[in-house]
Queue: 2 jobs
Job 1
Amino acid sequence: MRKFTFAILLSGCVLAVHGQTVLTLDSCRTLALRNNKQINVSRLSKEVAMNTRKAARTKYLPKVDVLAGYEFTSRNINLLSNKQKNMLNNMGTNLGTQVGGDLQKGISEKMTELVKQGAISMQQAQQIGAMIQQAGAPIGQYAAGIGNTIGQQIVDAFRTDTKNVFGGAVILRQPIFMGGAIKAANAIADITEEMADNDESLKTQSTIYDIDKVYWTVVSLKHKQKLAYSYRDLVKKLDDDVNKMIRQGVATKADGLKVDVKVNEADMDITRVDDGVTLAKMLLCQLCGIPMTDKITLADEVGNGLETSNVKFTDYQPDSTFSNRPEVRLLQNAVDLSEQGTKIIQAEYLPHVALTGGYMITNPNVYNGFQKRFSGVWNVGVTVQVPVWNWFEGRYKVRASRAATSMARMELSDVQEKINLQVTQSRFKVKEARKRLVMANNNVKSAEENLRCAQVGFREGVIPSTDVMAAQTAWQKAHSDKIDAEVDLRVSEVNLEKALGILE
């Protein structure tokens, strides 16, 4: 595709002459391509697609997340239950009671045995028991105090300070196998970027096509404007001659009225063509993105005729034409997108494997008795996700996606067939336009000779004014047909270039 630059624009495509801007066809194209909002939107879409493609590439790379947080809790974490803490707190009391009871029981049994043997009397045994009971109380109290102290120390050792908790983690996840979803997503990103480029090409060709048609319409109207003034001059000259002949008594007043009608018709034609030129130039300015009030002159509107192009189109090759047409490329993109969409659907129902790893840190340190310091641990692992049952959801979705792909292929085939027909029709129209131009040039020569003969015969008085007016009308029509044939040839060539996808 031809690239138009501002350097070209400044180097001669646009010239200021007598307060007007002279525009060539290339300069009109340049202005339109620069100012067209839809083309600018397509260029931004390309930028979006490019960054989306770059983002898709990152799906192959590991993802790393960093987490950090603080939490305040109303209670501390306790490793002992309430029952366990009560047992430990009363451990000394229970132990002292047991020790004192066991001592008294043993002595009582021994005194009973001595009494039975007659070694001591019952009274003596009671006195000795009373003395031992008084002596055992302090021992039990002592054992209870020590035990309670030890139990409290154990409870305190299991107590934690975890109301204020700080934590952080670094998490890594590396996809290993996602069922082909990542590859398909990257393919879709590539296709989307290509679609944005094809869309820009399509809008560029459409803009150039519109500019060319309006440009040659303005040129045609401008040349017809010159023709209208020339025709009026011919009719007015005839009117002057007829008026002289009326005054000389050679012609009748009726002859003068007939010529007056032709003069009025010529003036109306000038008015219509002037309005047409103004409106056509306003439309061209609008397409070029310049103020419609600007006074512009087209390079091809000067002179007495249009230069016909000698463009020779190569033999029609369908494959190359299809590759050149952005419409076909966009439809092919749609087919490719549908195929990749099917792969993504299939990937949802295949096993997914990922490598995981990370480092976690906490304060209090949960790995060393809840110390008030930061400490952490590394971890690494593998996760596997296997879909087991989904009520054939995946099968139905795949079938629907494949049907959509078939529809896209049919639309592509249909457009290709229409393009074949369009190219053939455009080639025939170019041939017809060239033949029509040759015939129009021949008709102009005949009309000019016919008008010359009629004027000579009128001056010699052998041909009436009506024959002269008929010759003038034929002359005007021949020149008008020539202008139409010249412009039609240019437009038909533009149509063929668009059909072949080489309009640039």
Job 2
Amino acid sequence: MRTNPLTILVILLTCLHMSLYGQPATSASTLSVGDVAPPLKVFKWIKGEPVTEFKNGHVYIVEFGATWCGPCAAAIPELSAVSRKFRGKATVISAFVMEYNDDPSNTSNPSYVNRVEKYVARRGDQMDYRVAVDDPSKTLEQSWLKATKKVGIPHTFVIDKEGRIAWIGSNPKLLDGVIDAVVNDKHALEKNTSNAPGTQPSSNNPFSPLKEWLNDGGESILFFSMLSKYESGQTGEPTYSNVDNFRWTKPDSELYERRGKIIVLGQSLRVLYAMAFGDTLWNYPMSRILGLWTFPDTIKNPHQRRSYGKYWYRPILEMKDTSQFEAKYPLPHNRFNYMLKVPREKGTAKYLQQLMQRDLETYFGYRVRVEKRQMPCWYLKASAETQARLKSKVSNGQYKMYEDEKGNGYFKNAEVRDLIHQLEIRYGCTGYGALTYRSDCQPPFVDATGITGNIDYMYPVAFANKLREEPNGGAIFTFEDYKSMLEEIGFQLVKGTKEMNVVVIKDK
């Protein structure tokens, strides 16, 4: 089976979601900064000499990633630069985890190993460090990531000269400073698993330790609320916690542990008001569950469908001066921090939003309403002939995605919402990241195909080749290019309007 470069289209959102929120983990953290690093039990070494143990006097960097993960691919140059700079003093290891196994019964030669091998071979010297892959039992994922409740990828562990975990983070740009401190014995161990470098929390950056305190403990606090300007506690890149992220979690999962907390750092007022007054779920159908290739059970979790096609993604500003709402990233101006903590049993989305609305009203005083308005959208349509031609011929009901020998990308037993995901990920305003950074995104995409069953469709080889040629996975196609490709398949994107709930903000 050939490596499928189209994977990033289907599960990029899953990767982002996991990076932000993680996945279910054990009920209690068993591994943290300062602990002895667990054994590196890999299934196979793909590149470089095997590391059988963490030797005293040497520093190790263990990064966890996957072939399908866009941010992991983007981190490759940083990891290679670190590997070259500290060669002889520190060893960089990339461990591939969370890879989909086409045949779970085959534990001696799982299909994903070949996929990882091709992925690494294709990049050659770009990956200037050692590479290993996890076993079908997910030993590495369980003993490292889930043990620390750091299940999102990429995630990196720095192991000091005594074999202890010195740092855990997800920002590869910070590795250089951290490793330099560890190599030169200037890094003091502490319970700090944030992306902030250094040995101790800075006195002029009060929000990093407070954020960690709220995340790691603070359960004795019944209520805590704070709104401040970003300049008073700069933290680097903007971060946020979705007020509705716990709605689909189970007790004892990591997300359930976060219930009752909101932590927003370095975001604009537009984002804060979207969280407080809008529907905090994604405005398109939920993505497939990684590894299972199935969508979440919307029968048991009907709230997962409530946003799709019903909410406008961005608050509308009807005021004379909108400058306070607009932030120019990465500049610190017009950016804010907001933190909220309530008892977990009271941490419903409705209650958290009510408290957040109160705080915003207390300080800013803008008039806010949620109104129904006709808003622009794209309708995805298909003729009767297309519906009949694309009807799935797969009988076992399993979703498959692969390439043929010519490089055509095939989707078997897919759903229309797979297409909706791909459109939203590439061109839509997905989540708060779009609210933060983007101004050119397309309006929501709505399924108007009339297709009720599953479908089989193909992306032409030219499209797949362009994806493969992009260094970090996924070529930059124009929206018109993508529309043309959909027309080749038999779909049309038609401009239209749809009544949606809109957050409208007016002058005080």
